[in-house]
Specification:
Layout (H helix, E strand, L loop, with lengths): L6 H28 L8 H5 L2 E7 L6 H16 L4 E6 L10 H7 L4 E4 L24 H10 L2 H11 L4 E6 L8 E3 L13 E3 L3 H8 L3 E3 L6 H7 L4 E2 L4 H7 L1 H4 L2 E4 L9 E6 H5 L3 H36 L3 E4 L2 H21 L1 H24 L4 H8 L1
Parallel strand pairs: 1-2, 1-3, 6-7, 6-8, 9-11
Antiparallel strand pairs: 3-10, 4-10, 5-9
Helix pairs in contact: 3-12, 7-13, 13-14
Length: about 375
């Protein structure tokens, strides 16, 4: 008869078995994470898993959709799989302009787009990323959103619009180009009678300049240019513009503009689904959005600069800087749009005044603190 193991020996054996099992599981998990594969869960863990269906506002090949993919991975990994994002590209469930409605009704749990895509709900939504800059850039606007009262103003606006949403801004984006044209834009009068694609409050700005504005989602712009439905268009950045095919249909690329100098990406979340999360998963969603916002910014610097060079050197694209006269005309148009909308809507006026107050303070600080890098650039690169 075999002698029974002592309690101490049994304890050592149990610990050895536990450590061996844990090490094997840890190695498998580390390998899965390293390879970018989904985590492997036990039946008990998978039973507790929450899955959100999220759709982006971008075609799967678009630079912005890469950000939606990266955000989904960050949330899934940070939550150790307790919250998993099932991501779909634009059009999989609804069109890009229908994301806010779909998330509101629960058809989708979350969306990855821009605030301006809900412009039809209220033009005031366009102030959260696609409005006038008042001298700010997109980083400055994000600072207002998260530390100047903008976040709560947005949630209050969504509640007034009876939208069951929690919206976060994420980015920032570089200053958007004026757009793609057949000929360089040298004066604002050239917009008169031009069929031009843009979105949100920018549509009102270009209408003030005399353009005939056509509002289209990103994936429809290049086909419209090819068919002659529109004469010119703007979308967002060199990387997205290149992938969507702008260099194939237009060769004049005008950089710098005041029509959308402060835009950010936006994450819409169904408020009921968000409120149902435990506190730690809510925190993970929030900080994953923050983390991807920074990561997206770093990627954009790397990719946009490379793709702009490639289009100019290898694709025959002629790149121009928007003249000061056109920029001043845009500011004049913004003043008219803002005055009109502020008179019509107290919420619009309240948000604009908050942004102006923030801009007055931080732009003064930046002008005094930030060194003029053009001096160094000229010295080293001419």
């Amino acid at each position: 008869m075999r002698k029974a193991a002592s309690p101490r020996a049994a304890s050592r054996q149990t610990r050895r078995q536990f450590l061996k099992t844990a090490a094997a599981a840890g190695a498998a998990g580390a390998a899965a994470t390293t390879l970018g594969m989904p985590y492997v869960f036990t039946k008990q863990a998978s039973a507790q898993q929450t899955v959100w269906k999220m759709q982006s506002g971008w075609p799967s090949r678009d630079f912005f959709h890469e950000s939606a993919v990266a955000l989904s991975q960050k949330i899934t990994e940070m939550a150790a799989g307790r919250l998993r994002i099932d991501l779909l590209p634009a059009g999989a469930v609804v069109g890009a302009f229908g994301i806010a409605d779909a998330v509101n009704t629960g058809l989708l749990d979350a969306g990855h787009a821009v605030g301006v895509y809900a412009y039809a709900k209220s033009p005031t939504t366009s102030l959260f990323g696609t409005g006038p800059s008042f001298g700010m850039d997109a980083i400055d606007l994000l600072s207002w959103f998260y530390y100047g009262g903008g976040f709560q103003m947005y949630q209050d606006l969504l509640a007034k619009l009876k939208l069951n949403l929690v919206n976060f801004l994420m980015g920032p984006m570089p200053t958007q180009p004026l757009g793609w044209f057949r000929r360089p834009i040298t004066k604002p009068e050239q917009f008169k009678g031009t069929k031009f694609r843009t979105v949100g409050l920018s549509a009102e700005l270009f209408a003030e300049l005399g353009a005939s504005v056509v509002i289209l989602p990103g994936g429809e712009i290049v086909p419209a240019l090819e068919r002659g439905v529109i004469d010119g268009a703007e979308f967002n950045n060199p990387s997205s513009d290149k992938v969507l095919g702008f260099p194939d249909v237009r060769k004049v690329y005008m950089l710098q503009s005041y029509h959308q100098p402060v835009e950010s990406l936006e994450v819409n979340i169904n408020k009921t689904k968000y409120d149902a999360l435990p506190a730690d998963l809510k925190a993970i969603v929030k900080w994953a959005i923050y983390a991807e916002g920074a990561d997206f910014h770093y990627r954009a610097i790397a990719r946009n600069s490379l793709d702009l060079e490639e289009m100019e050197r290898q694709r025959g694209v002629r790149v121009f800087t928007t003249p000061r006269e056109v920029l001043l005309a845009q500011l004049d148009a913004w003043d008219k749009v803002v005055a009109k909308r502020s008179k019509e809507n107290p919420d619009f006026a309240k948000i604009v005044n908050s942004q102006k107050t923030w801009a007055r303070r931080i732009t003064s600080w930046k002008r005094r603190v930030y060194v003029d890098n053009s001096i160094a650039v000229k010295r080293y690169f001419g």
